[in-house]
Amino acid sequence: MSLLKKLALLAVVVLPAACAAPPPVRLPDMTFTDRPRFLLDVAQIQVVDQYQPTFRLPNIEHQAPVPPAKAVERWARDRLVPVGSSGNAVVTIKDARVIESSLRVTPGVQGVFTKEQAARYDAFVDVSIEIKPTNINMPEGSASARAERSRTVAEGISPNELDRVLYELVEGLMRDLDVQLDTNVQRFLAPYIKGSR
Questions:
Q1: What are residue 120's DSSP bridge partners?
Q2: Angle (CA) 63 129 50, round 5°
Q3: Dihedral of the CA atoms 168, 172, 53, 70 (nearest 10)?
Q4: How far is CA 24 from the centre of its chain?
Q5: Helices and strands in the chain: count of H runs, count of E runs
Q6: pLDDT averages per 10-residue partition of the chain, 197 residues
Q7: Is pTM beyond 0.85 here?
Q8: Which of 133, 145, 150, 156 could join 180 via S-S bond, C-beta 3.0 to 4.6 A?
C-alpha cells in the first residue's frame, strides 16, 4: 500500500474520533446530608409538586442536570424525618423555574473578535411546609421560603460547560433556600421539632 493510501486511511480513522462529542460531564449528587436533620412529630412527610414545567423556551429547568423541583424533593428527604405516630407534614413546591434569556452581543466584524456574555439563566424556587395535626391540642404550623439566583454564560459555551453552570446555579439556589428554611422551620414549626441529628 502506498504512503498516500496509508495516510488517507489514517485520516478516515482519526477524523471521526476527533469530531466525536466529549463524554457527558460527571457531576456529584446534590444532597443535604451534611446538614442536621429535623426530627418532626408527624407520621409522614409528603412532597407535593405544584409547579408544572412547560418544556418550552424560555423555560429550561428540565434540561438542568438536577432540576430545582428534584433538588427540593431531595432536601425534604435529607433534612426532614418523621418520628411521630400521627399527623403529616406537606412540603409544597410552588415554583421551580429556570429561565433562559438571550443577551445582546456586538454585531458584525467587531463581534467576531469579542467574546461576550450571550445568555442569562435565572432560577427560582418557592417552597412551603405545612403541618396539620390530628391532635386538636396542637396548633397548625407552616414555614415557607423562596430564593432566586442568576448566572450569565459566554458565547460558544459547550454543552458540558452549560451542564456544569446549570448544576452550580441550582446548587447555589438550594443553599440559599436551605438557609431560609432552616431558620423558618425552627421559628414556625418549633412545637413539632423533637430534636435534630
A1: 101, 152
A2: 40
A3: 90
A4: 18
A5: 4, 8
A6: 44 48 83 97 96 96 97 98 94 98 74 73 98 82 97 94 97 98 97 89
A7: no
A8: 145
Contact yes or no for 97/82 (Cβ under 8 A):
no
Q: In what order do the strands lie in the sheet with 193-196?
A: 80-82, 38-40, 193-196
- Please name the amino acid found at residue 114: T
Nearest to 141 by CA among 79, 96, 75, 186: 186
Amino acid in position 59: N
Q: Name beta bridge partners: 153.
A: 119
**Tally of CB atoms within 10 A around 15:** 10
Boundaries of every domain in the chain: 45-193
Q: Report the distance separating Cα 100 and Cα 80, nearest Å.
A: 32
Express each pLDDT in 118-163 by its tens digit.
999 999 999 999 998 887 778 889 999 999 999 999 999 999 999 9
In 3D, which of 171, 128, 124 has the Cα closest to residue 149? 124
Nearest to 82 by CA among 170, 192, 176, 185: 192
- Cα–Cα distance, 146 to 140 (Å, whole number): 21
Pairing of strands 98-102, 117-132: antiparallel
- CB-CB contact of 190 with 29 (8 Å): no
